[in-house]
Amino acid sequence: MANDVRIEQLWIPDSLDGPDAADFLAAVEVGRKVRMQTWGSDDLAYAPQEKLLEMADPYERQVILVAKVDGEIVGTVDIALPLADDLDLAEFTLDILPEFQGQGVGRQLLEAAEHFARDEGRHRILIDTNHPGASLAGSEAEQLVPGSGLGFVPLGSREVEFARHTGYTLQHIEQFSACTLPLDSKLVAELEAEADEANAGRYRLHHWTDRCPDEWLEAVAALENAAGENGVPGVDTADMVFDGGILREAEEVTIAQGRRTVVTAVEHIATGTLVGLTTISVLALRPDVVFQDDTVVLQEHRGNKLGLLIKVANMERLSEQFPDARVLYTWNAPENRYLLQVNRQLGFATAGVTGIWEKELPDLGPSVS
Fold first, then answer.
1. Single pTM value for the model
2. Mean of all residue pLDDT scores within the chain
3. Domain definitions of the chain by residue range
4. Which CATH class is domain 182-325?
5. Helix residue ranges, H only, 166-216
6. Which pLDDT score, from 0 to 100, does residue 84 have?
7. What is the dotted CATH code of the domain comprising 5-175+355-360?
């Protein structure tokens, strides 16, 4: 056990320049070191400024608890409390420095976070565990399959053992994949030809960056709602109902956080309606690492290779606008076989999996102080 662990709430500074920013910078660095340990790179780590901007998200209250040993921060738990919907939910991200893992620090931090969540009236907790591709090569006897029945996490993983011992149940898996940019021009030509042949001139592409044109605003809100209906159980997009106003607010929040958004949508020419779209996010401070967000194609227009059409076009636009982008990351539910197939055609390779775990906290009733 680690000696004398102190748990406290992290002070969030106004800027990174002041003397009061030292703990915040140290906490962000814990997250970076853990991602280096898991993935072999810090592509998925927050830059301090990025994290600071995210703390001001109007849709989510964010609190960070830290574990200190001898005054040094050795572990953190980010607590995200949705404010617009899922008001019973808290999402935790738990990070412990490699040299302090297995010493009880994580358990103490998690217990403190659960107490905090319960005091905030949150009873449903989600945490995730991350598993690089190399750790997935065992036999079936060494696999834990989620309630959804698709995908698995490695049973022998320290993170998996920790989640199970602390009372969490594996709900579902997200497959995590990476694609090197820019795409090969020969591949692009082949895939565009394949998609064009399938949709036979019945569709037209539209592109924008950051802000949706007014004429498509309600159509995009409808597509986002359709994406939510097909969402994964336990993930909070399912309860978000978008309209044009909410979409505009979300755009402004994204822009305020310094993020850029590259969008390609597809219109069914005969009806003049948008029937699909795909989005890539570019972070303010890491132009080399970009993230695939939603891709949605309405059910009645599937089978025309529209997913392939819009994704190829959007990745091409991304490389034109953001030539520094060298890798595109995406997460997909294993049941989304169509998108996984499209991703394989584009050159995505599996980098690992993320397990989403859930726990219901018992209601202890009013606390007596």
1. 0.90
2. 92
3. 5-175+355-360, 182-325
4. alpha beta
5. 185-199
6. 87
7. 3.40.630.30
